[in-house]
Specification:
CATH topology: Ubiquitin-like (UB roll)
Oligomer: single chain
Helix content: 10-25%
Structural class: alpha+beta
Strand order of the largest sheet: 2-1-7-4-5
Number of domains: 1
CATH class: Alpha Beta
Largest sheet: 5 strands, mixed
Strand content: 15-25%
Length: about 120
């Protein structure tokens, strides 16, 4: 059973393999959206690009589903490790940062700690 380690929230959430990342985060009560996203999110259809996350690592080289064509278009000017949570299926344990566009205090140490702590297989 994969674990999604949400860095900003300091929370590990179990999910089934193949589950949608956005749905898992929402079910766990985690905040994926900034102010703009709260007002105008599309409900998981990949149109508003407000549910992006930064992928910081995982147990495998590809812990998430392949980048979709929609993501390629919508995230063309964003960092390569950003994904749309609504378009992503979780294959294995992964570390993500929600709302990567918002500064995280002590970001370097918080991210290092999340990456150093072992993820269950």
């Amino acid at each position: 059973m994969p674990i999604i380690r949400f860095v900003r929230e300091s929370q590990d959430v179990f999910c089934e393999s193949g589950e949608n990342l956005r749905e898992v985060a929402m079910r766990a009560g985690l905040e994926l959206y900034g102010f703009k996203g709260k007002l105008s999110n599309c409900g998981g259809y990949g149109q508003c690009i407000t549910c992006f996350v930064a992928v910081l690592g995982g147990n495998e080289s590809d812990p998430l589903s392949q980048v979709t064509d929609l993501e390629k278009v919508k995230l063309s000017n964003k960092p390569s490790n950003w994904r749309l949570a609504c378009q992503v299926l979780v294959n294995s344990s992964v570390i993500v940062l929600t709302r990567p566009q918002v500064a995280l205090s002590n970001s370097e140490s918080v991210i290092n700690e999340a990456q150093q702590s072992e993820l269950p297989a």
